[in-house]
Amino acid sequence: MKKMEERYFTIGMAGHIDHGKTSLTKALTNVETDRLKEEKERGISIELGYAPLKLEPGVFVSVVDVPGHERFIRQMIAGVAGIDLVVLVVAADEGIMPQTEEHLEILQFLGVERCIVAISKIDRVDEVMLELVTDDIKERLSNTVFHEAPYVALDSLSGTGIDELKKLIGTELQTMDLRDAYGSFRLPIDQVFSVQGQGTVVRGTIYEGVVRKSTQLTVLPKGITVKARQIQVHHEEHEQARAGQRTAINLGGIERTAVKRGDVLVDSDHFLVTDTIDVALQVIGRKFAPLKQRTAVTLHVGTSEVMGKIVFFDRNELEQTPHEVLCQIRLDEQIVVRRGDRFILRRPSPVETIGGGWVIQPNGGKYRFGTETISMLRRHQQGTPKDLIMDALNKSLLLDLQGLMQQTSLGEITLKETLEEGLVSNIWLEIPRYGFSLTKTFTKIGVELLARLQQFHEDFPMRTGIGKAELIQSVSVNFPKPLLEYSLNLLVEQDEIQRYGQFVALARFSPHLPNEWRARMEQVIGTLEKDGFQAGKWEDYFIGSPLPKTEVAELTAYLLDSGQVYRLREDTIIHRTAFDQALNQLQLQTGRSFDLKQAKEILQLSRKYMIPFLDLLDELNYTRRSEDQRYWMEDKT
After folding, report:
1. Low-confidence ranges of the chain (pLDDT < 70)
2. First vs last Cα of the chain: how many Å apart?
3. Where is the Tr-type G domain (predicted)?
4. pLDDT tens-digit profile of 377-404?
5. What pLDDT, on a 0 to 100 scale, did the predictor assign at position 180?
6. Among 138, 279, 312, 347, which is least packed, fewest CB within 10 Å?
7. Which one of 125, 145, 174 terminates a domain?
8. Residue 52 and residue 181: Cα distance in Å, rounded?
9. 259 and 286, same domain (yes or no)
10. Last residue of a domain, one of 174, 206, 226
């Protein structure tokens, strides 16, 4: 019960260089986050610093001090990607600076909605100057999501305003939703280092799920299996860490050089590795050099920084616009993202932020330029969980739970609940061991299978049916085989088709002579019946006949399969009438057994027909031969 009450958050310190973020972090947490020698000497933060903030019992907060210098903007993006609340630090003696403006844009693009403005270094200004700076900040924030942000004036060295800031942080966090600790574990890695005697350690903010000591994990996108040897939260060892916590994990099974910032640590196969993403992009609110079709861009998502090209479907050039742009980014490297993940887009040269937004579809495809693609992207953008599942099943036809989680980026609980609703309403069906498919897909498969069977019966009316494997193969280009197997079973249950061993046919079909050749074939069959045991070679019955050889072969198989004739020898068949008459004569005029001499006397057949006929009786299990005697398999009645 105690664990259910615990709440975990990550707070980011953002602002211009030398505005006091690191000093404020130390005043709040009593932890020095500048740990590199260069940082201490130069007085600026290059890498991400972090520290625990103690508030009320049950609330655990990590403070991330992100770099403020323009050259370290990519580290700043990696740091704020996982935060719940930002403390925007503005020095009272300088006010909002260009770097502060860019930080504000990045924070909004990354979906950070809660902000506290901390006006630092108030000991350097008088009350009039402080009031002017405060008014200027409020004006600058008036058109942002932070327009209602609370303010606190403070001085980190004297401690003025620090307690008030702590209270504000606690108040803001009380109303915030918790990160998903029940889904699959995901940790975008922002720091990698080695510890002597322990090996590789990775650090980051847990986006979702829970990680436990000794758990087997995977480093994506490389797919390297590792083990969580040790878990630390702010230098304290823990058995587990959960969503919202800043954590360090000692990994077993991987070298330091095999993992880097931007990789993602996960505990399941639910996450998709991709190099093409469909996105909703919002550009910055000031003019920038137009971005042409397929221009090189740098994508920052999670802790990844990847080069790629931007692809538009409704324009050939992107300029400053207040409207959201639906487009695609094709990356030079694979990344790990889910639907809804936030990103920043920057131009690599000259370096500048272009905009940001969120991932609509992690597994983008190749689409045509035009309104049809934009309409499709808009449907994906606005889609409900049901819509997302339907889109995924329209695209892939058959997906298991893992595939659906990858394609839709839905959480496991939401996905399972939506799937259950869809099964009840018959929107999709579940194929045991294989996954889910839309009901309309089964309808389409059924139509194709029935049409293929109908065509087969028209082409080969004398055959019992088509081989099941052949039927499946004939339509497997368009549909997965498990779907076809399941559809066949459904059609059998619905009495649409019938099975004969490995053959299938339409339920109302029975083999018959083709109309085109019926008269000719009936004539041959009649002649064969008339000839009885004096039948000649089977091929001789077609001398002078216009029947094609293929039809002769079909007729032969049809007569044999339907039991209308029997093959005596390789080149000779007899009509069933002759066979039945001979069988009845033998049964009536013999005892429990008989030999060749007796049979010849009764049937008056030459050895040419007699021996093949008796062998046929053995083959059909009417008789059993023992030396020179043949025994009836059943007592005659």
Report:
1. 1-5, 32-49, 66-82, 179-182, 635-637
2. 82
3. 6-177
4. 998 888 888 988 988 888 888 898 888 8
5. 64
6. 138
7. 174
8. 20
9. no
10. 174
484 within domain boundaries: yes
CB atoms within 10 A of CB 464: 19
Domain that holds residue 236: 186-266
Residue 613 lies in a domain: yes
Residues 446 and 369 in one domain: no
Q: Burial code of 474-485, b = ≥16 C-beta within 10 A, e = fewer?
A: bbeeebbeebbe
The amino acid at residue 477 is V
Distances (CA, A) of 302 to 88, 99, 554: 20, 21, 66
For residue 501, what are the CA distances in angstroms to 464, 480, 620?
11, 23, 19
What's the rounded Cα separation, in Å, for the pair 274 and 361?
A: 10
Rounded Cα–Cα distance for residues 427 and 171 (Å): 45
Distances (CA, A) of 32 to 204, 211, 212, 380: 18, 27, 28, 45
The string of pLDDT tens digits covering residues 474-490 is 887 778 888 888 888 88
- Angle at CA of residue 102, ends 340 and 265, nearest 5°: 40
- Asked if 411 and 492 sit in the same domain, the reply is yes
**Number of domains into which the chain is organized:** 5
Distances (CA, A) of 170 to 59, 118, 247, 514: 9, 15, 21, 86
- C-beta atoms surrounding 29 within 10 Å: 19
The CATH number linked to 137 is: 3.40.50.300
Residue 267: both structure tokens together = 């505990």
Structural domain contains residue 181: no
Residues 127, 218, single domain; the answer is: no
